[in-house]
Amino acid sequence: MFKLAHLSDLHIGPLPDVPLSALFSKRFFGLLSWRRKRHAMHRVEVIEALVRDLTLHPAEHVAITGDLVNLALTGEFGNAASWIARFGSPEEVSVIPGNHDAYVDGPYRDHWKMWQRYMADDGSCEITFPYVRRRGPVAIVGLSSAVPSPIAFACGSLGNAQLERLEPVLRQLHGQGLFIVILVHHPPLARISTRRNLRDHAALADMIARCGGDLVLSGHQHRFELGTIETPRGSVPVMVAPSSSTDDTNRHDEGGYIRLGIDPAQRRVFVAIRRYRDANGRFDTAMRGELVAGKDGIDLVQGDWPDTDD
Ligand SMILES: [Fe+2]
After folding, report:
1. What is the pTM of this model?
2. Domain 2-302 classification at class level
3. 5 C-alpha to center of ligand 1: Å?
């Protein structure tokens, strides 16, 4: 069983000083939102507890599916780089960007270079999407849906060029019999509103159906969700992690992170949702089970994992 920890939407604070010139943009509204509510929802002490939890219960790999920062200010990227390093080395951690990591037009791609070794092919330092990291029978494919969007929008896009590069990658990995885990910040699901969706979700779902892909890990929604992509090979789960920096007191955006146990040979995926408990400052398991295809798509059927203490 390959053990993977899936974190998302850390929205790491605190915010650095915001220059006045930065506020003549969408950042003005982002700063209002941060000061009004987000600073209290996304807490550094929860991320500290997350680091401790992953030290006590190590996974073989950690996937962080975007929105590490808030307003994409230069100082935020360096702070996030320090936190990423606390989760592990570039060999142990894979990162993809989210829409907040490309919040407004500007040099955000230059800032991503602070995370470049976590967003590159195995053995490379060059940021590339898709990137591929192979861990035994599991292939992790990182995509970027992070593009700036207008005020009041939080949509994403892969773009034709990235999709064209992805097709042969999926075909090759699928041909090698690997279990393919695709990381993409915006869930490729049709049910998400046009204000927040992945513009080319249908193209990605179609490509997974045609070329390969066994599991999609996303974020963006700030709550745990499951979706399904139907393929000729069966139902492919789309698993949406909550925000991993949010405590258990926020009723609308329950936080947490996901631990996965992947059995590549049997094509089985076991899931445990771990949530931060404000009462004791620790994470514990809120739900545990297996992803199973039902008549209405993928369900999380509760139960213990086989042969493990997860
Ligand atoms: Fe987010």
Report:
1. 0.97
2. alpha beta
3. 18
